[in-house]
# Entry
Amino acid sequence: MLAGINMKPEFHHHTALITGASSGIGAAVAHALAARGASLVLVARRAMELKRVEREIRSSASESTAEIHCIPADVTAAMDRQRIRDFLEQKQLPLHILINNAGITSHARFDETQSDVLRRTMEINFFAAVELTAQMLPLLKKSARPTGGRKSIVLVSTPSGLYGIPGRFAYSASKAAGHVWMEAMRQELKADQIQCNIICPGYTRTALRQSGLDGQGNTIQEEQAKEAKSPHYMAVQIINGIIKNKRLLLTDTNGRFVYWLRTLAPGLLERIMAKKLAKDLRGSVE
# Structure
């Protein structure tokens, strides 16, 4: 049982598609939704890890979980996105919740970043989410809204998308683009009763910091932040954000600090970020 989650079956008769579902936040959200009665479509590149998540959910979730489907796929590939759409249509599955969670981080200064690293970061964090959503949107629109339920498109983002973080420009830019896209789409889809939720988890204990890219395209190896929360904690925040229809949910004080300082004291925020960059550069040398 996930601490902090009200186990009422609020997602009965909902089908949720989650990308990046084989580990970390994606897997934790899958557990959380299953505990609330949702059927699941789990998408990630690693087939064996997807099946592991499915086994864990089936062994721990209540019998209220109607269905779990695993689709090994690379969401940056057009053929795989089409295959996901075809799967749902062939199975005649409705779609009520789309959680764009798959992502990658990249850490490097602008003048030290190769163009293919920027393109790879944008491809995973922005274009894949946009284009998968475009494939799934007709299914979302035609699926009947469950009684007392909701239809939602969720972007799992980061506080780094709120401001241009020095030394991480590509990551910040890819996430900021997603925010603007979601804000526009939220207004466009009001008549369809589809909510759009941007969730910005703070530091989380996942493999993201050991699977991102440096400026040359090499895999980075960074230690977890001391204040990092568990994926299960973030899953609670995401579920509550969906239920409360949060336009932008910041899960920690760091994110809220950046959000307000950007508007109220941008000069101060720049000085703070400059000190952070200097600290990061010293750490990389050491």
